[in-house]
Amino acid sequence: MRTAVVILGHGSRNAGADEAIRKVVDGVKQAGSFAVVEHAFLQYVPPTTQEVIERCAGLNMDRIVIVPFFLQAGAHVTRDIPELVEKVRKEHPKIEIVVTDYIGAHAMMAKVVEELIKQ
Question: N or C: which end of the chain has fewer CB within 10 A?
């Protein structure tokens, strides 16, 4: 099964604000577990989620896993992302599109905070 991963961030008008998400994408790419690993943004800057999903569909991916790069379950996580995913599922019914939990909900976040404190 050919799987694409889309790490989905908010987006910002501030130059360089996307550096963190790019580093995460690079790390996941280096692991080599997935056919495609890309980032996308909901607002302000390209690439949009729709653009990245269309690119993945054009590469004949069987499955697209979207990882919301958000710390809290705000409106984007609870409303906007599910609405967007429902739309693209209808446009690409042959592709399995999965959304993981948002990053901030992961149990490893406590370890990340500990590590930052130790630094």
Answer: C
